[in-house]
Amino acid sequence: MGGGARELAGYLAALGGWVATLAAAVLPQWRQSSYAGDAIITAVGLHEGLWMSCAAQSTGQVQCRLHDSLLSLDVHIQTSRALMVISLLLGFFGIIVSVVGMKCTKVGEEDPVTKSRIAVAGGVLFILSGLCTLAAVSLYATQVTYEFFRESTVPVNARYEFGSALFIGWGAASLTVLGGSLLCCSCPPKERRGQQYYRQSQPSTAREYV
């Protein structure tokens, strides 16, 4: 795969990961009602996310309510919120920086070395964005797992388990990190640049000597 194709593939993967991160951040299905156990399944399914909680009835009606207070939320929810916002901001700046540094764009064509370094900087921003998403989703999933398996008087079918937004977040983090890694590979090694410079300068030196 050529350098330009690798950059384009990395950019598209990172962009798709950023869009999936945005979707995971706004979806309320970070945790949902568990239907495990022998008890009768209720007709109402509960979903909770970073910003709201929803109740879905068997008739198809869904009612959602935003979290009333920021300070009254659990620590893991506040931390996941902050990490997801940081991830989206890093990914947004990564999108802009990567467009400037990619070989398929016309910006900064007169200095290809600086242009490749800008592409690497965009890749680093994408990697950091993916790591923030991974940390936020994993932290929330750890808390859901702890609350599900801890000893409590709450029946099993009244507890919460992983929601679909967590799996979207894990996939988004993987895509973003993969795309950022491909962008980071766009910078040629220093040895290769030195060899190219030596080969270009060698004929002119020979002509001057003759």
UniProtKB/TrEMBL annotation:
GO molecular function: structural molecule activity
Keywords: Cell junction, Cell membrane, Membrane, Tight junction, Transmembrane, Transmembrane helix
Transmembrane segments: 82-102, 118-142, 162-185
Gene Ontology cellular-component annotations: bicellular tight junction; plasma membrane
Biological role: Claudins function as major constituents of the tight junction complexes that regulate the permeability of epithelia.
Entry keyword Cell inner membrane: no
Taxonomic classification: Eukaryota, Metazoa, Chordata, Craniata, Vertebrata
Protein known as: Claudin
